[in-house]
Recover the amino acids of this structure.
């Protein structure tokens, strides 16, 4: 295969910190090159250089054998480089069609031949199996269709090299298989893909070659057919990963920290409601919610954290019925929440890492004077520094804005805040989404530590393997209803899988 892209001796410095150091990667025509590395390893910085958001401190980029200086993202598009970001860059109020033709190269002034453009888009859609509803608004389509819109937009604007940043993070297993079919079709027709993912199973399934980054440097590049998950994990973290086996337990005789009794919310909706929901979470156990994403899991998390109130039925916390559904009240009752959308629900982007870490305790005597009247900034800074080390949050300072962190490190900030508050109940919705294998292992250990000190944990995850590995009990949901409750000790996988499909 001939070389399409070469990034040669790329370094990027921010003040005294090097995010990338002497990085060399090549991408050939018609291949999938995966970039693998821990959160904060420099993958996003490198890609931001490639699309012109950053300029390298040192090094050169060669495209089709010629040196290029990519001055901005628009220039990258002109050169045939497109990127689908982990958090989609779509205008929600506009239709799919209008999003795709934004910045149309064929436009003459303000005029666009929409009929001709529509024909081109429909042809591309058919060619690559990118099914989209062109006249639907972005708010009216699924996450998977939004992603297909992003890919179609990049191809429409002439991308020969497509960068996919954590493309499967918010997709169901079925949608991931559809994405991989699209990727295989693209490379079979000569397109090239840079694939960024933390999911080892996906990396080994779709990659041709894998380049591993650690602390901003390239550790090595290997052929996918000549490596395995253990070898890649060791390259990522610098030593062999030791995964501890968690002992499962039966906690039926332990106190109940939370209980749902015949709870209904929007019960006529198959995908955004719950119907007749009843289950318990005991002290010192992890209850996993298993099910294909979009079967009421979001509503379960919102109900048990006070974000929404049930329309019928009741919710008890530590044996007392909840009357007022208010997130602050639930926080005061010892409920911690790791939300599924970290940007909208978990963090305040313009606040610092340290400030985000004490959001729920800013009026505590540890962090303020006069019950919140004046913040004790020294104490907050020292606390944040200590917790950042425990959770391995990669940052230049805890005083930097949290939005400047990588997605995985943002997730660690939330985990640190929620777990270190010593709650009685932890509601963890997709807690390891976007985390590398080492960080995922750390999160699982922290959940086990919380369980050991008596907290109840409700784990909601689209990763079936995570549910099986972590749960003491497994509650299967389908279309907002419980299809079965199973012990996490030697769980009947086939039976659970059938229950997840509604059988």
């Amino acid at each position: 295969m001939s070389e399409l892209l070469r990034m040669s001796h790329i370094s990027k410095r921010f003040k005294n910190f090097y995010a990338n150091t002497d990085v060399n990667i090549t991408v050939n025509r018609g291949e999938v090159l995966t970039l693998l590395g821990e959160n904060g390893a420099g993958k996003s910085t490198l890609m931001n250089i490639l699309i012109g958001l950053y300029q390298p401190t040192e090094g050169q980029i060669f495209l089709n054998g010629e040196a290029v200086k990519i001055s901005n993202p628009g220039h990258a598009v002109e050169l045939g480089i497109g990127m689908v970001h982990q958090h989609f860059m779509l205008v929600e109020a506009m239709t799919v069609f209008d999003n795709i033709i934004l910045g149309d190269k064929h436009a003459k002034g303000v005029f666009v031949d929409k009929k001709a453009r529509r024909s081109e888009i429909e042809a591309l859609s058919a060619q690559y199996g990118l099914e989209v509803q062109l006249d639907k608004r972005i708010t009216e389509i699924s996450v998977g269709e939004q992603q297909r819109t992003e890919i179609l937009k990049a191809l429409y604007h002439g991308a020969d090299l497509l960068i996919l940043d954590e493309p499967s993070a918010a997709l169901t297993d079925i949608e991931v298989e559809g994405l991989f079919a699209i990727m295989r079709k693209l490379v079979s027709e000569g397109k090239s893909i840079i694939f960024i993912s933390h999911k080892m199973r996906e990396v080994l399934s779709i990659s041709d070659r894998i380049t591993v980054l650690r602390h901003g440097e390239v550790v090595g590049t290997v052929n996918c057919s000549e490596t395995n998950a253990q070898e890649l994990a060791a390259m990522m973290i610098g030593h062999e990963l030791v995964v501890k086996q968690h002992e499962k337990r039966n906690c039926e005789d332990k106190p109940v920290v939370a209980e749902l009794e015949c709870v209904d919310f929007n019960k006529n909706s198959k995908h955004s409601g719950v119907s007749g929901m009843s289950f318990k979470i005991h002290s010192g156990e992890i209850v996993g919610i298993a099910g294909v994403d979009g079967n009421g899991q979001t509503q379960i998390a919102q109900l048990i954290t006070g974000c929404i109130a049930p329309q019928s039925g009741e919710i008890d916390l530590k044996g007392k019925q909840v009357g007022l559904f208010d997130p602050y009240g639930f926080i005061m009752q010892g409920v911690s929440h790791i939300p599924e959308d970290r940007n909208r629900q978990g963090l305040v982007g313009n606040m610092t890492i340290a400030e985000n870490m004490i959001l729920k305790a800013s009026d505590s005597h540890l962090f303020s004077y006069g019950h919140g009247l004046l913040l004790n900034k020294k104490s907050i800074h020292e606390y944040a520094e200590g917790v950042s080390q425990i959770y391995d949050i990669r940052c230049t300072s805890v005083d930097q804005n949290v939005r400047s962190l990588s997605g995985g490190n943002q997730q660690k900030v939330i985990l640190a805040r929620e777990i270190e508050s010593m709650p009685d109940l932890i509601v963890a919705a997709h807690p390891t989404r976007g985390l590398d294998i080492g960080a995922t292992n750390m999160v699982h250990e922290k959940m086990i530590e919380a369980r050991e000190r008596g907290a109840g944990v409700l784990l909601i995850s689209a990763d079936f393997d995570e549910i099986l590995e972590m749960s003491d009990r497994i509650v299967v949901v389908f279309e907002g209803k419980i299809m079965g409750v199973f012990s996490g000790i030697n769980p009947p996988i086939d039976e659970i899988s059938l229950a997840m499909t509604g059988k």
Summary: The longest strand covers residues 3-14. The chain is about 30% helix and 25% strand. The two ends are 47 Å apart (CA to CA). The chain has two domains: 3-237, 256-334+423-500.
